[in-house]
Amino acid sequence: MGAFGKLIDAFLFLYFALMVFIVPLFDAQTVLPKQIYPKVLTDLNKNYIADFGDYLLAEEPHFLVGLIWHELVFLWPLSIANVYAILAGKSWFGTTCLIYGASVVTSMAAILGEMIGSGKASEKLLMMYVPFMGIGILATLRGVVSRSTKSAGSVDKRSTVKPRRKLA
């Protein structure tokens, strides 16, 4: 993938490294008891909600709670795995990136659909959420490109099965 691919991987590494901390410390406050978090973190979350007018986090609709559980149980471990995969140069990074990206794009489609459809979201709030759709698309493309470059080189390397000899 060359230098451009390394740049994308560096960007995704920063994103995944941030998600390793943001998901359990901030996003999970929506679904876990508030008492387990230090006051500093809950105050930061309240300030974000007030500053950006994030009505979804303020109202906590059921679909968002479900998406945050999905993020906590499924996407957060994938973020940890992706950080490891980049640092260790694992070949399966493209696959986990594809899974992560497709999942984020799906979640963001629901969230952005609600925000735009309801007309409640300010431009400031949309500018906070829209980049996550872009990152999801980027992660998906990174996974697709890594899969297609592997399969392109192995097209002519089919194994031939030799017929068995009959023992008479």
Number of strands: 0
Range of strand content: under 5%
Mean pLDDT score, rounded? 91
Distance between the termini: 54 Å
SSE series: HHHHHH
Cα radius of gyration in angstroms: 21 Å
Structural class comes to: mainly alpha
Taking the sheet with the most strands, its summary is: none
Description:
With 168 residues, this protein is mainly alpha-helical. It contains six helices and no strands. The protein has helices at 2-25, 39-52, 55-59, 62-88, 93-118, 123-153. The termini are far apart. The model has no long low-confidence stretch (mean pLDDT 91).
Core attributes:
168 residues; mainly alpha; 6 helices; elongated
Short précis:
This protein has 168 residues and is mainly α. It is 76% helix and 0% strand.
Summarize the SSE layout with pairings.
Elements: H1 2-25, H2 39-52, H3 55-59, H4 62-88, H5 93-118, H6 123-153
Helix pairs in contact: 1-4, 1-6, 4-5, 5-6
